[in-house]
Amino acid sequence: MSREAADPPLDLIDIGANLAHDSFDADLDAVLGRARDAGVAQIVVTGSSLDSSARAIELANRHRGQLFATAGLHPHHASEWNEALAARIRELAMAPEVVALGECGLDYNRNYSPHADQRRAFAAQLRMAIELRKPLFLHQRDAHDDFLAILREHRPQLGAVVVHCFTDTRDALADYLALDCHIGITGWICDERRGRHLLDAVADIGDQRLLLETDAPYLLPRTAPKAVVGANRRNEPALLPWVLRAVATARGQHAAELARLTSNNARRFFALPLPR
Fold first, then answer.
1. Where do the domains of the chain lie, and which CATH numbers do they carry?
2. Residue 107: other Cβ atoms inside 10 A
3. From the CB of residue 105, how many other CB atoms can be counted at a distance below 10 Å?
4. What is the DSSP string of 167-209?
5. Low-confidence spans in the chain with pLDDT less than 50
6. pLDDT tens digits along 176-209
7. What's the pTM value of the predicted model, to 2 decimals?
8. Over the stretch 253-266, which tens digit does the pLDDT of each residue have?
9. Bridge partner residues of 17 (DSSP)
């Protein structure tokens, strides 16, 4: 897989990559090498279940300084929430490698878990974040009204919050910004079919609230050339520069300056050290 040279060198942070996904099992070291070559200095590995959270912590422990972890329960798995699982998630979230609680939230698109179970698990994880004083890594799809109501109820006690992989409307974005949330933008903005609305909306995000992510292996940037992507069509952190360029163009900013700005935001949000 070839990479286009970046000039000047980038210093990017991918705030959400599912590197615990089994599609990375065979070549993770190569994936991390390509990320470094592309200017992606640090990556937050998303935990979305008990197993993937534990795996994210394991990876962060193995690749100290480059990888960090989140720990939480995705709404797809919300029906699994009980006292024993909550205790285990809490234990994982207290690990030093864990920089945020989540991925948690609501997803009424797939409805793998009943809505009531999703709301219950979401509220419980917000309370856990308050107790542990952890930043929150949130997911919302087709559930804005319920998501906003639950988040608004707990927001005064919460610390930093990012609505990750934002793909919703400009009005939804305004609601989250009004609650002082950070916003994570993915390769969805590179999709001329589904993400065109983000080209206008992304300009509404204040400089200090913008974060970038791949959500790898999902949401492959459609602007990345086939020669760069490779035959397997898998997204990976090395493709974050294509997200950066799309966002920079939409906002009328230089890519290198936007890389610096969003990386500074990520380091503040997650309390990340400078890369070695």
1. 12-270 (3.20.20.140)
2. 21
3. 28
4. -S-HHHHHHHHHTT-EEEE-GGGG-TTT-HHHHHHGGGS-GGG
5. 1-6
6. 999 999 999 999 999 988 999 999 999 999 999 9
7. 0.95
8. 999 999 999 999 99
9. 45
